[in-house]
Amino acid sequence: MKGFLYGLFVPHSHDAADSIDDALEASTGGVRALKISLFVLLGTTLLQAVIVAFSGSVALLADTVHNFSDALTAVPLWVAFVLGRRVASRRYTYGYGRAEDIAGLFIIAVVALSAVVAAWQSIDRLFHPHPLENLGWVIVAGVIGFAGNEAVAIYRIRVGQRIGSAALVADGVHARIDGFTSLAVVLGALGVMLGFPLADPLVGLLISAAIIVLLWGTVRSIGRRLLDVIEPALVDQLEHALEGTPGVAAVPRVQLRWVGHRLQGGAQIVVNADRLSEAHAVMNAARAHAREHLRNLDELQLEVVPAVPATPS
């Protein structure tokens, strides 16, 4: 059960089997996912806001605020994807891919803020009770919130995994959290129907606590990207690709890091070549072989160490 929940709310951000090798295509796919999910979430939020207006449910209000914040997180991430398309300059020699990870930090901040707002509203309602109306519609709104958010979550996470974007995966997890908090709203409304009027604000507090607890997985994911943590499986893939290149005798060192949703790295390879021209050919073959195995690899700096002293061609 623990593993299932971890996979549900902290999914892996890279899917090597179905990755996109073209940087522009990957960026375009990410922007498309953000556009579609933005309009879906805004529609969901609008429907819930209408029901909040004539029901007075603080739990539904908390859920609606969180859904609206989730929709807004698509905007900075959208901007980050567009910035990432810009070519490197003398000032930004590695390009603008890090903007995507910075957008991930913004997502974390917005999620945390929405949790605080939801908690404040719920505590206020505990001390100042307000009768709920149209509970059937509150339940309908909760179901709509779950369906809309889960659809967006699945879409964002799949695209994020396909292009290697930790920030887009984090935004998908954010939507998934919203979906389950919408189900919590349904539980609160059912509790009020059964004669427990405080069920609504208590569920609002539960939503806030759940957001904070589940947010930790996203914080770790984005934090690791900023610290250049790389999945060992990707390092193994690069190492095996280089070792499998004809003429490569050994691979003493391999380095990889994410820059946004693209990979950059370097390696030291020992080559069997007695001429510089042969060593150069092996290096080019090794780089091409590496890109065949890591399709979202943009830059790979190779240091060639001849197994025997090379002579000029």
Automatic annotation (TrEMBL):
Subcellular locations according to the entry: Membrane
Transmembrane stretches, start-end: 38-62, 68-84, 105-123, 135-157, 177-196, 202-219
Keyword set, alphabetical order: Membrane, Transmembrane, Transmembrane helix, Transport
One Gene Ontology biological process: intracellular zinc ion homeostasis
Domain Cation efflux protein transmembrane: from-to ranges: 34-227
Main location: membrane
Gene Ontology CC: plasma membrane
Annotated family: Belongs to the cation diffusion facilitator (CDF) transporter (TC 2.A.4) family.
PANTHER family: MITOCHONDRIAL METAL TRANSPORTER 1-RELATED
Protein name: Co/Zn/Cd cation transporter
Lineage: Bacteria, Bacillati, Actinomycetota, Actinomycetes, Micrococcales
